[in-house]
């Protein structure tokens, strides 16, 4: 989970760099012009995001396979898959809420059509904060969880 925090911090810093570059070159209101930054600036955040996803998926799958009784493994698999659906729903809700909350009174929202006037960096900082809170909750529950010690049947 700590990788998702690092990923969002990196994404926020790269977005700040992109906005600064747009202002330096006077491209803020030129929607059809490409900002002179290499696409390779996106590589670190996507690599971190991919690694974090791999660890999350494998960890969740192992947890549900190992800690759920054999009779309930299909329920465990259903819960495992449901987590991703709930996560997508919450993500959509968060984006809709932020769009509504930040776009009122004639202001550009964090997700404005003109990305040079938007504030995706604020959104990335928010996601980093939410990931930090989730990581703290994970540490609490992981420390207090009593694991089932089952021997392998292989």
UniProtKB/TrEMBL annotation:
<dbReference type="Pfam" id="PF00854">
    <property type="entry name" value="PTR2"/>
</dbReference>
<feature type="transmembrane region" description="Helical">
    <location>
        <begin position="122"/>
        <end position="141"/>
    </location>
</feature>
<dbReference type="InterPro" id="IPR036259">
    <property type="entry name" value="MFS_trans_sf"/>
</dbReference>
<keyword id="KW-0472">Membrane</keyword>
<keyword id="KW-1133">Transmembrane helix</keyword>
<dbReference type="GO" id="GO:0022857">
    <property type="term" value="F:transmembrane transporter activity"/>
</dbReference>
<keyword id="KW-0812">Transmembrane</keyword>
<feature type="transmembrane region" description="Helical">
    <location>
        <begin position="77"/>
        <end position="98"/>
    </location>
</feature>
<dbReference type="InterPro" id="IPR000109">
    <property type="entry name" value="POT_fam"/>
</dbReference>
<comment type="similarity">
    <text>Belongs to the major facilitator superfamily. Proton-dependent oligopeptide transporter (POT/PTR) (TC 2.A.17) family.</text>
</comment>
<dbReference type="GO" id="GO:0016020">
    <property type="term" value="C:membrane"/>
</dbReference>
<protein>
    <submittedName>
        <fullName>Protein nrt1/ ptr family 5.10</fullName>
    </submittedName>
</protein>
